[in-house]
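dude i think i finally got it to work??
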Amino acid sequence: MLRFLARRTPGGLLMMPLTGRNRDDLRFRRTSRPLMQRLAADDAATQWGLRSATDKDAPLVKKRDASSGLLIVDPEASRLILLRLGAAQGAARRRDGLLEARDWTISPAADELPVIAPQALFARALLERCARRLRRHGCLENGRWFVPE
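look at this
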């Protein structure tokens, strides 16, 4: 599914984990290799942010968690498409996955109505394409969609 998303994204798809120990952990990656390595090494749930490589104007908001000391990226303020992957289950190590995007708005002036941000329009189109592909090529079993590898 990540290859499908990367091919449909103008300029390519950038991915980053939403939590890390230092700034180097929270940098955008052009390939899905770091995500795949993390999924192979760890059975825990993980969250990654997705963005088009041509979207250089969007902010990236990072905060440090006081209790754990981890750096955390705010996907809402950073205008990222959120990829949530659940914990690995069973011998096949299947994971539940969720792609999530918000309708981010821009307020151009006080007397004008808010306008939907270009990142939101891009995210909508990308998620609609992903849903169509899932319905065409996926398999519905017990209320869950499974995507062949």
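The chain has a mean pLDDT of 85.
im so relieved honestly
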